Amino acid sequence: MELNLEKQGFKPVANPGAAIPDCVYLAKRQTLNTNRAVCVVQLDQMPADLKVYLKSVRSRVAFKVGFFPIFWGLGLQVVLVCPGITSTTESVLEYVAKFDNQWAIIQSVFFVDPDKWEFKAGRSWGQFLTGKYQEEIFRQLQVTYRDVST
Question: How many independent structural domains does the chain possess?
């Protein structure tokens, strides 16, 4: 699964699967005042501990796209494609950042179930600058999948 985020200033990162296992798409947007990334990971089955898995993805993406702690933290949008993932009982919001740690945070998470053709979305506290990126990902997912977010 790929997203088209070029109009938002994102540029695809070459060979994302080398640093991030199961990553099928990685794009970054770096300006003087923002450092954002979008990562699409495709799994065959749910990880044993989703929080630990997403923390690993966050760290790997941060090093792959380049970030500068304190000066230039990373805001990450994660799209996780996996059969059965929309059936999880936890809220998608459990996996987004509760506060900005000035390092790397997961600003939004999208769970996509390719078997059921549905997705769930969650975003962290009001993103003034990145809300438009999250909205674009949401719109692109809606073209193919049904939104079952609560």
Answer: 1
Residue pair 41/22 in contact by the 8 Å Cβ criterion: yes
% of the chain at pLDDT higher than 70 = 90
Alpha-carbon distances of 30 from 6, 18, 128, rounded to whole Å: 12, 21, 16
User: Are the C-beta atoms of residues 107 and 127 closer than 8 Å to each other?
Assistant: yes
| H runs (alpha helix) in 3-80 | 50-65
In a domain, 1, yes or no: no
Residue 30 sits in which domain range?
6-147
Q: Residue 30's CB: how many other CB atoms inside 10 A? A: 18
Digit-coded pLDDT (tens) for 71-128: 677 889 999 999 999 998 778 888 887 766 667 888 999 999 999 999 999 887 655 4
Is 23 inside any structural domain?
yes
Angstrom distance (rounded) from CA 39 to CA 42: 10
Neighbours of 99 (CB within 10 A): 8
Work out whether strand 104-113 and strand 118-123 pair parallel, antiparallel, or are unpaired.
antiparallel
Average pLDDT over residues 47-53: 92
